[in-house]
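User: Show me an example of a complex going from sequences to structure tokens.

Assistant: Sure. Here are the input components:
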Amino acid sequence: MDAAAAKLIGAGIAMLGTIGAGLGIGILVSGAVQGIARNPDASGDVQTNMILGIAFAEAVAIYCLVVALLILFVG
Amino acid sequence: MNNTRPRILGIPNRYLTLAIIVLGIFAARVYAPVLPHIQVAPERLSHQPLFTLPVIGPFYLTNTMTAMVIADIILLLITFAVWKAVKSGSLVPQGFSGAIEAFVEVLYNMTESTAGKWTKKIFPYFGAITLLVLVVNWTELIPGVDTIGILEPVVEHGNPIEQVTSNIYTLIRSEGGTDSDHAAGFTLIGFVRTLSTDLNFTVALALISVFMTQVIGFQALGPGYFSKFINISALWNVFNKPMGIIDFAVGLLEIVSEISKILSFSFRLFGNIFAGTVLLFVIGTLVPVLAPSLFLMLEIFVGLIQAFVFGMLTMVFMSLATKGHGDHEEQHDH
């Protein structure tokens, strides 16, 4: 297996970590939507905290993406 | 409601849009878009360094520096527009200044509800970081960014070029499909490249954010702020409460958490925007007509969210730093 093929396979495997981010964001938004359904007046607060939490969960997926991009485009 | 359609120069907008789409289809057939060589580090525009510092090394003019100058000019123009609107004395500014005022007011209310009495110290960082990162993220959507630049001869990853008019050349796809990895030819170095795709910018902004968080914590709590990291009192009481060793270890873990915040800030912004530009390149190459507009809409949204999240996390960490450990109960009294 030459280096170019190994790069492509490695980038593909590195992106498997985004499964965790998808699950995390799904659980988060589910909790937020239930909170808004219980108490529609608090929807502004709940939404702000949900966006904050989504950014944290998505950052982990972005780390996977950065590793994949580093594998593909550097060196 | 009036029946006139929105027009520019007397032509209804819908016909202009149709003309641009048809022009795009023909342009994509004649000069098919070429996937440029993408690299993580920003490309150099000058062959000689601008200046050389003794220990650090040479500083070249990179194409992200032009993006930084453009973003600064845009921010200064926004500032002057808002300043003129405020100086004119009317209580409700109209138009663009009104939009900026609404934006700043949303951010300020958010800061006030989180930070309480430290709002006036924390809000400048929140607002400045959000506005700067927003302007920088949205420059990647301007047509011409990353696509207009200098063609340089390279020995690998190159494409042949073709002359459009005098002094304007364009890359064309090499024969034999898209296997241009080992061909000699030319590569495009854009004049402007989105500043958030430069790790220098994101790491510098993350360092500023985390460092000023410590400074504001020190201003709020005095030298006792650092007992969050090095828990001397738990160490002194270790004979009364042997479990205090765990508190000390937790304090050391807080230092690791601060360092991971630097990494997390910088790589979140870098990863989102760099992936966005790579996505725009690839989609522009595969489906040049109509599909890039969907991804440009996605990039508007992503740029806004990432700017907002960077600023808001800075603000939340700063306000947490002013609170200390004792008074977590009085956070939500409304």
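The lines above are the inputs; the final block is the predicted structure for all two components together. Residues 327-334 of chain B have pLDDT under 50 and may be disordered.
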